Amino acid sequence: MTRIPLRPLARILPSRERGEDPAGIEVENIRQRHADMQDRARHRAGSRLVVLGLFFMCAYGAIGVRMGHLATAEVVEPVNSGPGAAIASQRADIVDRHGRLLATNFETHSLYAQPHRMVDRAAAARGLAAIFPDLDEAELLEDFSGTRKFLWIKRKISPEQKQLVHDLGDPGLLFGPREMRLYPNGRLAAHVMGGASFGEEGVSAAEVVGVAGVEKHFDAYLRDPANGNAPLQLSIDMTIQDATERVLEGGMRIMNAKGASSVLLDVHTGEVVAAASLPDFDPNDRPRPPTRGNDPSVSPLFNRAVQGVYELGSVYKILTAAQAVDLGLVNANTVIDTSGPMRVGGFPIGEFRNKDYGPLSVSDIIVKSSNRGTGRLALQIGRERQQAFLKALGLFEETPFEIVEAKGGAPLLPRRWTELTSVTVSYGHGFSTSPLHLAAAYAAIANGGYQVRPTVLRQDAVLRGPRVMSERSAHAARQMLRAVVTSGTASFGDVPGYAVGGKTGTADKPRPRGGYYDDKVIATFATIFPINDPKYVLVVTLDEPEIFASGRLRRTAGWTAVPVASEMIGRIAPLLGLRPQIAPDPATDITLASNN
User: Fold this and answer.
1) How far is the C-alpha of 514 from the C-alpha of 63, rounded, in Å?
2) What whole-number distance in Å separates Cα of residue 561 and Cα of residue 545?
3) Which of 151, 487, 545, 562 is 20 to 30 A from 587, alpha carbon to alpha carbon?
């Protein structure tokens, strides 16, 4: 820009010659300069306004396009952009049938290290080993001294442990937020709950996933935010479950058993009110599965009530009798000759301790638990009808019980169903099922002849499956089961105030490589109570029980499983709301003096 002088000589000298005042020239030049400056400022301001207008036009245009896109796009859940948002999710609670808490979430922290930020690695290793006794100081120091820049120390720690680590004051020891699964009742219903663990995991969050039991089976439901964190309600009654486990554990110890299980089933809804398996575990600190090659049944993770597939013995005899009555082949008083010898397919059929009962009524066959009597009933029934009946009871497939372990409890069926198979199956040999299968079969007798499908979910109405036997046959079978308790092999099973019916079963335990042990049995007692108005089925099974009583070593169910089940019914029946029926003593020495 060329700057014009305010008093140019070329104009001042001529102006003086003409007699004009030269100061006017300066004033005019100043005015012109100011006018030029204003024009340039006005031009710059106009340009800026145009640019700003274009910017706002583009911004509002982009916003309008985005709003139009949102208005026409499908609705999606908003996603938090914070650290760990992709794997952080709330898991729904699990409650019992009365809404009491069985599983919930608990806020905690993880502990990790960044060795390159540590001030004193040796002191940090020494302090961590003192706080966590399961950590080795030398191994920690070796890890801290390596080239790794990130190291997990503990996946979850308590608030007290967090404070102790914080007090160490090392900037290389850091904490990450966590939500862990908490089972406030500890071991209670451990095999039903199963347990949970961390899935996808990051520094700032960890995904909680089910690993067994209902936690695994209902994992998708428990993690689905669409459910609004509504709790999963089970059929389990926490009070009944606790009483069941206490009695079962005491009975297992008294009877010197290797393991034990029990199932309490509502005969009208199929709800499993209590299910226990011993030994058990704490799902808050779930142990590792057994290594390959070991017997899985020795692990506390093994669910004997569902996964335990055994030959349960004579408890199945009542099913044979009930079917024979249902087919009209016999009634409770029909006499069957149980005398020996009896051979089927070239194999002898014997009785317990080589007894020979002779002619017995069908009811007495059950009371005395005669193998020959039940076998002869099975021959009358026939193989095809026997298989169809057992299949209708659900004994040919895994139970629909809603825990993942139920799939591992499929019955073991004979490869060929010969006449000999039909006879041995009639008294519970050569045919293996779980205690839960047995409970469901007995429930059909208890509820008047309807198939029952066990469930772990709370039901609000009676659920009846297809009819598998007539009410008349079911009633006759219940009367036989009552006679077993009052005058048969389950005489220790009577509970004052509660009419109990049931059947014992003592099956020789099979060897892993074939054959049977001579001194190891599976003892089972399957009961219905109250027998005059059936509400529940209880199955108690003991693995390798033995007790010294009445001068000799006893292993049979009548001496082992029956007393345990009797004690259990006495404890849980009042908790179930069942009032005892106490017969009044007969009046004596009373003389009617007047009718007035």
Assistant:
1) 78
2) 8
3) 487
DSSP string of 360-413? EEHHHHHHHT-HHHHHHHHHHH-HHHHHHHHHHTTTTS----SSGGGGGG--B-
20 or 238: which carries more pLDDT confidence? 238
**Residue 65: C-alpha distances to residues 56, 73, 237, 239, 511 (Å):** 14, 12, 57, 61, 76
- In whole angstroms, give the CA distance from residue 472 to residue 359: 24
How confident is the prediction for the chain on average, in pLDDT? Answer: 88
Domains and CATH numbers, the chain: 94-233 (3.90.1310.10), 240-288+296-575 (3.40.710.10)
Sort strands 335-337 and 552-554 into parallel, antiparallel or unpaired: unpaired
Euclidean distance between CA atoms 9 and 161, whole angstroms:
94
Residue 501 — φ and ψ, nearest 5°? -125, 145
Q: 469-497 b/e with 16+ CB inside 10 Å = b?
A: bbeebbebbbebbbbbbeebbbebbbbee
Strands (E), 511-546: 516-529, 536-543
CB contact at 8 A, 159 and 169: no
pLDDT tens digit sequence for 87-109 = 545 789 999 999 999 999 988 88
Q: Are 240 and 104 in contact (CB under 8 A)?
A: no
| H-state helical runs in 111-237 | 121-131, 137-144, 159-168, 190-193, 213-217, 219-223
In whole angstroms, give the CA distance from residue 196 to residue 219.
9
